[in-house]
Hints:
Layout: H1 5-14, E1 18-22, H2 23-30, H3 37-41, E2 50-56, E3 61-66, H4 71-82, H5 89-102, E4 107-111, E5 114-118, E6 122-128, E7 132-136, H6 139-145, E8 153-154, E9 159-162, H7 168-184
Antiparallel strand pairs: 1-3, 2-3, 4-5, 5-6, 6-7, 7-9, 8-9
Helix pairs in contact: 4-5, 5-7
Amino acid sequence: MSKYEPLWKHLQADGRDTFKMTYDEIHTVLGFDIDHSFLTYKKEAAQYGYDVGKISLKEKHVTFNKKTIEAAELRVIESYIDAQSAEIQPLLQSVCTAIRAALPNVTEKISWQMPTFWRGRNLIHFAAQKNHLGIYPGAAAMEYFAPRLTEYKTSKGAVQFPYKTFGKEQLTLIAEIAAWCGKEYTKK
């Protein structure tokens, strides 16, 4: 955890698209004045959905801007889905939509040849397999959700949801797993 994490969490909780904070307001949140290290650590704000905009030494304020998911970023996962068979594309799109709702302000990318949701680390992946949807939330999530996954084939960091029995119940469970990953894996 960096010394600026309380500020990034404050930004995330505030939720405004663009706003200025005076150095005094930042001091109130952090308990100390920002210094030259702020320039190094400001990139961490992106993990919480914000970019650091203008830093005004004269007016003693910092402008923060909420990040938006660029169309090109969205296309990365859509391209993966489009490359799958037409029969499973609606299922994959519903999984992607559910994970996006559970994990706002994350980076979407392809990692390990799978759609991946990332904030400072990989949070969760999904992948189309021949007969099942693979969800890859990591070992800690699998351990936490183990009592609810007994009817599925699992491994240390993955669960398989067969296509033939996939429905609303599985989609809800995937969203819960994703939300848990977002909360637990971004704790410092």
